[in-house]
Amino acid sequence: MNTSLRQLQGFVLVAKLGSFTRAAEQLHITQAGLSSMIRDLEAQFGCRLFDRTTRSVSLTPAGANLVASANLIISEMLLAKTRVTAASAQERRLLKVAVTQVVAASLMPHVENAFARIQPMVQLRVFDVAQGQIQTLVETGEADIGFSIYRKPSTSIETREVIRFPMLYIAPKGLLSAPGGPRGAALSLHWNDIPDIPLISLAAEFPLQQSIDAALGASGRSFTPRGAYNSMQTMIAMVAAGHGAALLPSVIEPLCDLRRVDIARVVEDSVMQPYYQIWKRGRRLPDIVTPFVNAFKEVAYELCSR
């Protein structure tokens, strides 16, 4: 049996009005189309549902037995549709975003504020996870989109570059500016002018560190290593304590305490770090993704790319 909701609605309306003509008008179909639907319904049940004469249409005993059940089915189906539509609308109003802990701390509070001003009815759910988990959350659908410096090759993922972060040279306070100088003064350095003091780095397995090492090698510069860590925040703390300097993308800048460290942008474009939006291939993204990405870019440019 392949009974449709439309057939049951047609049956109930004919039973209520006692007329194929008037029922067809209310359903916005032809009388012939409605008659065909009812014949098909009768064929599925194996009995006549209406007695038809040139003057009247009346329910058969079998048809009368079907009316209550048909009304119940129609009511349940319409209620289910309402619930599913409401749930779908709620899902569209929830945006799930995966980022690293650094981005969650440095940018996302400001991004959430900027996004709330243009989309106040949208709820954001931010996953602050390790770099390697971002793509997994997007692939499994737990996150609608992710943002990441690193893209692992995958046929199930789409990516788009959204911004390039300048590289920062972060040094102990006083190395790049005179003590008592203006806080937050914009400094810049050419790659070859970076001071020759030990460098604190990320662990060698991080793709970001590998790109930094490649840029250092291409420039012919070499520095004494001074520890390798899994956290950018740990690196900054080590710099502030005077253990060396660090090279990191400017996404970290909002977390730098300029009372304790000096920062300078490396001016060469070749060391700028691409940053990507990631989403699942073939997935239809919520319409709220575009304004969110725009808000993210605006905040990132304002805080990290001036």
UniProtKB/TrEMBL annotation:
<keyword id="KW-0804">Transcription</keyword>
<keyword id="KW-0805">Transcription regulation</keyword>
<dbReference type="Pfam" id="PF03466">
    <property type="entry name" value="LysR_substrate"/>
</dbReference>
<dbReference type="InterPro" id="IPR005119">
    <property type="entry name" value="LysR_subst-bd"/>
</dbReference>
<dbReference type="InterPro" id="IPR036388">
    <property type="entry name" value="WH-like_DNA-bd_sf"/>
</dbReference>
<dbReference type="GO" id="GO:0003677">
    <property type="term" value="F:DNA binding"/>
</dbReference>
<dbReference type="InterPro" id="IPR050950">
    <property type="entry name" value="HTH-type_LysR_regulators"/>
</dbReference>
<dbReference type="Pfam" id="PF00126">
    <property type="entry name" value="HTH_1"/>
</dbReference>
<dbReference type="InterPro" id="IPR000847">
    <property type="entry name" value="LysR_HTH_N"/>
</dbReference>
<feature type="domain" description="HTH lysR-type">
    <location>
        <begin position="1"/>
        <end position="60"/>
    </location>
</feature>
<keyword id="KW-0238">DNA-binding</keyword>
<comment type="similarity">
    <text>Belongs to the LysR transcriptional regulatory family.</text>
</comment>
<protein>
    <submittedName>
        <fullName>LysR family transcriptional regulator</fullName>
    </submittedName>
</protein>
<dbReference type="InterPro" id="IPR036390">
    <property type="entry name" value="WH_DNA-bd_sf"/>
</dbReference>
<dbReference type="GO" id="GO:0003700">
    <property type="term" value="F:DNA-binding transcription factor activity"/>
</dbReference>
<dbReference type="GO" id="GO:0005829">
    <property type="term" value="C:cytosol"/>
</dbReference>
